[in-house]
Structures are given as C-alpha cells and as structure tokens.
Specification:
15% strand
Length: 638
C-alpha cells in the first residue's frame, strides 16, 4: 500500500522549526504554567550552581580553620550545613514541581492532539483508508504520540534546565577562576567534537526506527486479521519470514539509534572524568606554585576550597552538555513523529458541497410538510438561495446513472459509460466476475468516490447537490464482511439509528429473523459482543447487520454479496430477513449466487466495467447470452 505518513530522513536531519512551532501552539493555553515551570527550572539551576559555590565557603571559611584549632567549635559549620540542606531541599522541590507540571501539561496536550486526530479521521475519505494500512494509522496514536509525551514531559524541560544550569555554572566558574574555566572550555570543545563524530547519525536512525515500527505494526495487524486464511493455506512459515524481515529492519534502526545514543553518556562521563582530573592537576599546580588566580572576584592565590568548588562546577557544566546531546536526539525523533501526525491531520477531508438535506415529512392538504417526528415518510429539502424559499421532493428511491465513467487512478477507467434506471421499489441485481465493477457502482451511489463523467440522480436530484450524510442516511447497506462493534447486541443494532428505542430495535431484529437466536444468547439483547462478534457464527452476524440496516428504515438498500459466505440453511433465514427488509424499497443486489437474484426486476451483467446485458431473469435466459451461460453452468463467475 502507498503511504503518505512517511518522513524523508537524512543523516544530517535538523530540527524542523515549523513542526516545533505548531506543536508548541498546542501549549499556548498553559502560558502561566510554563512561566511557573521556567521560574522553577531557574531556581533549580541556581541551586545547582550555588551549592557548588558553598563548597568553597565551607572548606575555606569553616573546615580549614577548624583543622587549625586545638578545640574546634562546630556551631558555624553546623549552621552552614543546615543552610546548604535548606538550599538543596529548595532545589529538589523545584525539580519535583516542574517535572510534575510538565507531565500534567504533556498528558493534557496529547489528549487534545489525539482528540483532534480522531475527529479529523472521521472525515477522511474512504480513499485514504484504502491506501494506508490500519497498523500504520494505529502507530500514529501509539508510538508517535508517545514520542511527543517524552518530548513535552521530559526533553523540553531538561533542555531548558540544562541551558540554565550551564549559564549559571559558567558564571560561577568565571567568578572563581578564569584560567580553570578556559581549561574546561577547551575540554568541552574536544568532548563535543568526539561525540559528534561517534553519534552523528543518531537522529537519522531514530527517525528510521519510528518508520520501521509503523511498518511492523501494520504487518502485525494484517496478520492478526488474516489468521484463518493463514492457517487454511499453511502460510505460517512464510509469514514468519515476512515478520522477521520487518522486525530485523526495526532491530537495526533501534540498535543503531539507541546504541549510539546510549554510548553518549558513558563517553561524556569518561571525558568528563578526564577533565575532572585535568582541573585537579592544574589547580593543585597553581596552588603549590603560587600562580596568581584570576577571577571575577579579583586576583589572589588559589585555595583548596576554590579547587574543590571548581571540580564540582566542572562536573555540573559537562553533565548538562551530555543531557542536551541525548535530548536533542529525542527531540528529533519526537518531531519526526509530530510530522507524521500533522501530515495525517493535514490530509484533505472529504468535501461536501451538497445543500439538499433529508427530513421527516408528512402530507397535509396534498402538500409535503416537514415534521420533527419520524413518520415513515422522507423528503428532500431544497433551499433556494435566490428567494430564500424552500421546496420539498418526496423521497421515493428512484436512482439513475447516466453515462457514468469512473477511475480510481487517473487514466485507468474501471467503469465505462454505465447507464441504468432503478425505479422506486425495484430490485436491481449486478452480476459479473470479480473486478467487473459491481461494488464500485454502489460505492459511487454512496459517494465514497466521485465520478469522472456523467450524472447520478436520486429522485431527479444530482447526488452532488445532496449532503453526503443525508445521502448515506437514505441508503441502507448490508455487506458480505460484517463488522460488529464492541458492545451489546442492542447497541450494535441501534448503530443504524441512534435514536431508535429498544422496542424499535427488537422489531428490526424480528424483521431480520434475528430475534430468535438473540434471545438464546446468555444475556439476550444485553449480551456483550467483542472482537467483531467472534462468538457468533457468520450467519448470526449477518442477521444482526440486517437488523441494523432495518432499524435505520432506509428507502434504498444495497446488499453486497450478503449471503455469499454462509451455509444454505442459514442463507434461507438471511434471505427471508432480507426479503422482508427489501419490501417496498429500491434495492441494489450484488450476488455471486444467481439463485438469489432470479426474482430481481432488472439484472445487469457487467464485464470489465461495462454493462453487457440487462433484463429480468427470463429475458436474459431467452437471450442465451452470458447470463444464460452462467445460469446453465457453461462457465462460472471467477
């Protein structure tokens, strides 16, 4: 399948500022909290730097003098230790609070993004889902949103914290010793260049990791749905090979990404320790040799307290660089996920230029009048912009396709000059080999796709003028592959009409011949269905789907090979239910079994997107054409 949710990556991928700006726009409602978070981060950074400065005061002003006393007094030292404990507590509390606030904002932001994604998904055209795997779409809701959680809850705060800490620590280092600061800067320059060479492609592999896990999820979802087919055709070993290939691609990307990223911290620690030793040696030499120390506080001899404090500051300066390098890769990975999510959200929704709506109606004095209650009569409501008047056309179910051409892909027509007339109450059947265009015609009537040329009229109205929701509300569909949602049997039937009462749902089930087996279920209509109704037989699921269509009370029905995958006995029950459902309605039937279409008013025989024969059963038999050969078994549908 084609996929538009991929991100073009390269080894030198940089942060996409447009994507970052759009992501941050979701957090604008938390401005005051963000200001508070920044203030708490600043306090935490100042505490980190200030605590190192206290080491100098502690050693030079308290510990060293105590060593020279015959009878040391520890009051001042204890007081200073208490002050340091309070400062550390403030720092710890600040760190706890800003992390908690960021987690809260992250979850609220992700909820908003997921809500918006799901809302947008409801209005995407069928074409989108035909060209993207379900697993890939699911990956957007799981893996990609999880990378955003890490970005908002952790990476953003850590990046800001690291920058603030580095600035505060750098100022403190300059205050203590310019010479030692220069040594630190030189070491940092070496560290950054070494790490850059070793981990230069980490971002590239993180992005590839997201893409490969999306492909893997799509494959797993496909395999789960096709388990019966897999076992029937003994395709287990081949599927294992296919999974292994995709799993290996994910392993390679994840290994390269996480291996390089995880190696960064030990490297930084090792190089940081080397810097630590270098500063200790240089500081000790300056202290022993009496080399004048230059700092913002002035000049003088370097002390043990200055060396100890500077060693702590150097560690506090190198560690944020390591954290920033790690967080940068997380940011790139998260923005790659955000780009996939935003591409999904930017997909063009299904357009609808229709203005004719479907309303409940009744007749008063020979005129059609709109009414709020369900009367069993429907009408098309036409607003006229010119004079502001409204007219009504009774919904009768007359469908006309007039010289219709259609192609899924430009330049490759699948329907050629299709013309047909379905009068109210008629049963129109489509017969033909797989790929002849039968289901495509019903998709066009539903406006899942728009035609290339020609007209489709519904009660004399061009369907382009009818609002899509109202058009589809007037069409009941029973598919070969039934999908039941997680919920009770009653809820699944009511899916066809959310306003239907329990009595109306039960009446629809009786009409569909489903009431009998439903009452035999453990909890009757309150029986909970899961996994698409996996506990029911194919025929039982089909009967529930017919009841679902019946409760909608549509004037036009589309039956897409609804009995092709059930046994003969169950087919009789389903057929009886469908016959009741079809009574008085315009019906389009797609069937492979010709026995189910013999009583159709009109039978259309399609071949490669063209109608090659039309007429009722007897007329087509008398014609002794393709239909006759199919019926007599001269050749079979494929």
């Amino acid at each position: 399948m084609n996929s538009k949710n991929t991100v073009n990556v390269n080894p030198t991928r940089k942060i996409d500022m447009k994507v970052l700006k759009r992501l941050l726009s979701y957090m604008t409602q938390y401005k005051l909290r963000l200001v508070l978070v920044f203030a708490l981060i600043l306090v935490s950074a100042l505490v980190s730097a200030g605590s190192a400065m206290f080491v100098e005061i502690l050693i030079d002003d308290y510990i060293t003098p105590l060593l020279l006393m015959d009878q040391p007094v520890f009051t001042g030292l204890l007081k200073m230790l208490c002050i340091m404990a309070v400062i550390y507590a403030i720092g710890a509390f600040s760190g706890y609070m800003y992390n908690r606030l960021m987690v809260t904002m992250a979850q609220s932001t992700l909820k908003r993004i997921r809500d918006e994604m799901f809302d947008r998904m409801q209005y995407l055209p069928i074409r989108y889902f035909d060209t993207h795997t379900h697993g890939e779409i699911m990956s957007l809701y799981t893996n990609d949103t999880d990378t955003l959680r890490q970005l908002i809850a952790q990476s953003m705060a850590h990046l800001v914290s690291s920058i603030c800490t580095m600035i505060a620590v750098f100022c403190c280092m300059l205050y203590l010793s310019v010479w030692l600061t220069l040594i630190v800067l030189l070491s940092v320059f070496v560290i950054i260049n070494v790490v850059r060479k070793v981990t230069g492609k980490t971002a590239f592999f993180f992005v590839r990791q997201q893409q490969s896990i999306g492909a893997l999820n799509g494959y797993i979802e496909e395999m789960i749905n096709g388990q019966k087919v897999i076992k029937v055709f003994c395709h287990e070993d081949k599927n294992v090979e296919g999974f292994a290939e995709r799993n290996e691609a994910w392993r390679l990307a994840a290994t390269n990404a996480n291996g390089r990223a995880n190696s960064m911290m030990p490297m930084m620690n090792g190089l940081g320790c080397a810097t630590y030793v270098l500063i200790a040696v240089a500081g000790s030499y300056m202290a022993i040799s009496g080399v004048p120390n230059l700092g913002f506080a002035g000049t003088g001899t370097i002390t043990v307290g200055v060396i100890a404090s500077f060693l702590t500051l150097s560690r506090n300066f190198v560690n944020p660089i390591s954290q920033m390098a790690n967080q940068f890769n997380s940011v790139v990975m998260a923005l790659a996920g955000a780009e996939r999510i935003f591409n999904f959200m930017d997909e063009l929704p299904e357009t609808d230029e229709g203005y004719v709506s479907l309303v409940n109606a009744k007749e008063e004095d020979g005129e059609i009048v709109e009414t709020p209650e369900h009367t069993g009569m429907w009408a098309w409501r036409h607003p006229h912009k010119a004079d502001g008047t409204v007219t009504y056309t009774k919904l009768e179910g007359r469908v006309v396709l007039d010289h219709v051409d259609f192609s899924y892909v430009e330049g490759k027509e699948v329907l050629h000059d299709i013309t047909l007339y379905a009068e109210p109450g008629q049963k129109v059947a489509f017969v033909g080999a797989t790929g002849a265009g039968k289901t495509t015609i019903t998709n066009l009537i539903n406006r899942f796709y728009d035609i290339d040329d020609g007209k489709i009229r519904y009660d004399g109205i061009n369907i382009n003028k009818i609002k899509k929701q109202d058009l589809r509300r007037s069409l009941g569909v029973v598919l070969q592959d039934v999908y039941l949602f997680t919920g009770t049997v009653m809820e699944n039937i009511r899916y066809g009409n959310p306003k239907a009462t329990d009595e109306e749902c039960i009446a629809a089930a009786k009409l569909a011949n489903a009431d009998g087996f439903i009452r035999m279920l453990p909890d009757g209509y309150d029986t909970l269905l899961k996994d698409g109704g996996s506990g029911l037989s194919q025929g039982q699921r089909q009967l529930i789907s017919i009841a679902r269509a019946a409760v909608a009370d549509p004037p036009v029905m589309i039956l897409d090979e609804a009995t092709s995958s059930i046994d003969t006995h169950t087919e009789a029950l389903v057929q009886e239910g469908m016959d009741r459902l079809m009574k008085g309605r315009t019906v389009f039937v797609i069937a492979h079994r010709l026995s189910t279409v013999q009583n159709s008013d009109v039978i259309m025989v399609l071949d490669h997107g063209r109608i090659i024969e039309r007429g009722n059963h007897q007329q087509l038999i008398d014609k002794k054409g393709v239909y006759y050969q199919l019926y007599t078994g001269a050749f079979e549908l494929e």
